[in-house]
Automatic annotation (TrEMBL):
Cited Pfam families: PK_Tyr_Ser-Thr (PF07714)
TM spans (from-to): 136-158
Occurrences of domain Protein kinase (ranges): 209-484
Protein name per its UniProtKB record: Protein kinase domain-containing protein
Primary location group: membrane
Length: 551
């Protein structure tokens, strides 16, 4: 609309200038240039039969392409334009010189005449209008303010329309925080029902974001340990300045966490305002690091992370994910670096920057695959269709890590087993679970560990199926983990067919129609499946993206 108004304004302005120019210069409005066949457009001193008074030299037959006639001089001979004669070998130009007096006569809408003695005279010339400068000033005085008013009106309309489409919750959607030099004018307040912290307060809490306070460095930001003025310990995530999606991830995490309440999900304490120097998120501080720290990191100690503790971690994580799915949320970045551990190894699932709200009454969301290499659902990676079963696949990798203490991706392993999911499928298909389990867990010496670890491995195998339809839901996974821990049921022998969840899990173990080279009684785990993707992006994200990872 603004473009169309501007174009109309330019046209009106252009026409007014032309009209003004004609008025000032004094040309006869009837004496317009005219088209004359192959001679093109002609004007003074030439004229046609329609307006003979507009020129000195008459031109006729303009409607015929190659037969124009020009009369040089009053009552003089006619010259014909010839283009096809074989006798003419060159090009001729006709130049007519008009005296300055005759030219000025024409400007005054007069007619140039000469008597028999050659004296020039100008007939019927319009007298010089002394009011022209005054009229010109009057026209400019009217047109200029009118144009100014129209331009200002268009700008005001455009400005208000632009403001109408701004985000109602974040006003300018936090874009002003990218390079803002404003002070924290909104040191107190609420966005999305969470408290607002000033940038200066969080800088003070983290000792000006000292690198010694750094807890983790991930794909979207750096996490620092801090202590607020009221004594609370917090984890402060500062989103990277160079991340073009940081505003989207910032808003996404706030919106999701403010609608969730679960003992195994990390709590959001607040965030900075849109006027702060950077986008900061403030979480509860979880002091005991991540699962990855205890399995492969500097906290790794087999005596601390025993098998019963690992079982509890698996159950609590499954409960948190089942709660998310019931709330129509897909985490999309489930991994051991995003599962925090409290003092009693209580689970806190964190980092919702990639999470998606899942609309009701849809089977999937089409989106570009995102996540961490080694954890991404292969079907999501290939088909760009995100479902809650994508989280199930990632959780299957976490289960294998809890069993084996191996990292999800290790380039030092055989090239077909760089991805832990492929290694696990290999071992389980060969019925060599003992080669997969961490020896420090007592697999060979403790029958209970052997039973439960084998059952968890088989459950993880189901979660890692290439076809998402063959994976159980998180509700079923949670219930089965609880049964494995209590010893009520083994995954390979489900008998209560009246229980819907059991029937669903049992159907997961039934193989699809076997090709000719398989026996009908073959289990699904004896079928070789396509490998999972080893990488999702060209550049791998190092360490973690969690808000609370201790040193």
């Amino acid at each position: 609309m603004a473009r169309a108004s501007s174009l109309l304004l330019l046209v009106i302005y252009h026409l007014s200038l032309l009209s003004l120019a004609e008025e000032v210069m004094g040309f006869n409005p009837r004496c317009r240039p005219f088209s004359c066949g192959n001679l093109g457009f002609l004007s003074f001193p030439f004229s046609n039969g329609t307006n003979p008074e507009c020129g000195l030299l008459k031109v006729e037959n303009c409607s015929e392409p190659f037969r124009q006639k020009i009369q040089l001089g009053k009552d003089g001979p006619w010259f014909i334009s010839v283009t096809s004669s074989r006798t003419i070998r060159g090009t001729f130009f006709l130049r007519v010189n008009v005296t300055e007096a005759c030219y000025h006569c024409h400007r005054k809408q007069g007619k140039c005449e000469s008597d028999k003695e050659g004296n020039f005279s100008c007939l019927n010339a319009r007298k010089e209008d002394r009011k022209q400068p005054r009229q010109l000033g009057l026209v400019i005085g009217i047109v200029a303010p009118t144009l100014l008013v129209v331009v200002l009106s268009i700008y005001i309309i455009w400005y208000h329309k632009r403001g109408k489409y701004a985000s109602p919750n974040f006003h300018s959607t936090y874009t002003s925080s990218d390079h803002s030099t404003k002070s924290d004018r909104e040191a107190t307040g609420v966005y999305f029902e969470v408290p607002i912290f000033s940038y200066s307060e969080l800088a003070e809490a983290t000792n000006n974001f000292n690198h010694e306070k750094e807890l983790g460095d991930g794909g979207f930001g750096t996490v620092f340990h801090g202590k607020l003025r009221d004594g609370r310990e917090v984890a402060v995530k500062r989103l990277y300045e160079h991340n073009y999606r940081r505003v989207e991830q910032f808003m996404n995490e706030i919106e999701i966490l403010t609608h969730l309440c679960h003992r195994n999900l990390v709590s959001l304490y607040g965030c900075t305002s849109r006027h702060s120097q950077g986008l900061l998120l403030v979480y509860e501080f979880i002091p005991n690091g991540t699962i990855a720290d205890h399995l492969q990191g500097d906290r790794a100690n087999p005596c601390l992370l025993t098998w019963p503790i690992r079982m509890n971690i698996a159950i609590e994580t499954a409960g948190a994910l089942a709660y998310l799915h019931a709330s129509k949320i897909i985490h999309r970045d489930v991994k051991t670096n995003n599962i925090l551990l409290g003092n009693n190894f209580c689970v806190k699932v964190a980092d919702f920057g990639l999470s998606r709200l899942f609309p009701t009454n849809v089977t999937h969301v089409s989106t570009v695959p995102q996540g961490t290499p080694g954890y991404v659902d292969p079907e999501y990676h290939q088909c760009y269709q995100l479902t809650d079963k994508s989280d199930v696949y990632s959780f299957g990798v976490v289960l294998i890590e809890l069993i084996s203490s191996m990292p999800a991706v290790d380039i030092s392993r055989h090239r077909h087993e760089i991805n832990l999911a492929n290694l696990a499928i290999n071992r389980i298909q060969k019925q060599a679970v003992d080669e997969l389990v961490d020896p420090s867990l007592g697999f060979h010496s403790d029958e209970e560990v052997k039973r439960t670890a084998t059952s968890v491995a088989e459950l993880a195998f189901l979660c890692l199926q290439q076809n998402k339809e063959m994976r159980p839901s998180m509700d079923v996974v949670l219930e089965e983990l609880q049964r494995i821990k209590s010893g009520e049921c083994k995954t390979e022998n489900l008998t209560r067919e009246d229980d819907d969840d059991k029937k669903e899990l049992k159907s997961m173990y039934q193989p699809p129609p076997s090709p000719p080279h398989y026996e009908e009684s073959a289990l699904l785990k004896n079928i070789k499946l396509p490998p999972s993707p080893i990488s999702v992006t060209e550049n791998w994200i190092s360490i973690d993206t969690t808000p609370s990872v201790s040193n």
